[in-house]
Amino acid sequence: MIVRMVSLLFGLCLFGLGIVLTVKSNMGTGPWDAFHLGLINYLPLTLGQVSQLTGVIVIALSALMGIHPGWGTIANMYFIGVFIDLFMASPWISAPLFWPGQLAMLLGGVLVIGWGSYFYLTAALGAGPRDSFMVGAIHKTGWPVWKVRTILETSVAAAGYLLGGPIGIGTLIVALTLGPSIQLAFTVMGKRVQDIRHDSLMSKRQSSERV
Q1: Alpha carbons within 13 A on the beta-carbon side of 85
Q2: Helix extents (H) in the chain
Q3: Among 197, 183, 76, 188, which residue's Cα sits nearest to residue 139?
Q4: Helical packing angle, 145-162 and 31-40, nearest 10°
Q5: pLDDT tens digits, one per residue of 86-110
Q6: How far, in Å, CA of 197 to CA of 204, rounded?
């Protein structure tokens, strides 16, 4: 359990860092962050706090769909928001001035998010609020993770645009590469997201359902 908790928190830290890298690339944020920053136009909250609020809502909706959250789901909702605000305030992460540096920061952020997803998902303590939808869709459709993730990301990007979020070429890049980045991490480590059995708050281990 200690190893799983360390893997979970390390993954969430990487995820928060990756998000901040994509935001500070100034090429247009990732789909979920475009949505979150769009909400900030109407709410007096930080990016991390809006991420937490969205996570609570998604967890509630997932529960209604029969997707039971785990401790990792709750930790994802809370700690990613904390890490986002910490990294956003860090003086060590500054926005590049020219597009090659911006593109490198954006792609680096996508790669970091992919590995962050791997570490917290393989902790098997519950998929994150947003990834609960992804994992559930994979289970129901049998589609690969990259395909399901890409569809979800592009849909959220459209909502972010309508809310006035910062949509740019980087948004399209993230939407098209985040799924493959997660797939790459799982492939390198020789695992499949479909084979992970998550603990939930309803039972010690979901032994009857592979997610």
Answers
A1: 12
A2: 2-24, 31-40, 47-64, 71-88, 99-122, 129-141, 145-162, 169-188
A3: 197
A4: 20
A5: 999 988 888 888 989 999 999 999 9
A6: 11
What's the pTM value of the predicted model, to 2 decimals?
A: 0.82
Please tell me the distance from the alpha carbon of residue 22 to that of residue 24, in angstroms, as a whole number: 6
**Residue 164 in tokens:** 């006035």
User: What's the half-sphere exposure (Cβ side, CA atoms, 13 Å) at 75?
Assistant: 23
Contact (Cβ atoms closer than 8 angstroms) between residue 40 and residue 61: no
Q: In angstroms, rounded to a whole number, what is the distance separating the alpha carbons of residues 150 and 107?
A: 16
Q: What is the pLDDT of residues 16-68, one digit of tens each?
A: 999 999 999 999 888 888 999 999 988 899 999 999 999 998 888 777 766 77
What are the angstrom distances between the C-alpha of 57 and each of 53, 166, 171, 174, 197? Answer: 7, 22, 23, 23, 23
The token duo for 159 is 């909502």
Q: CA 16, 72, 77 angle in degrees (round to 5)?
A: 50
φ, ψ for residue 133 (rounded to 5)?
-65, -45
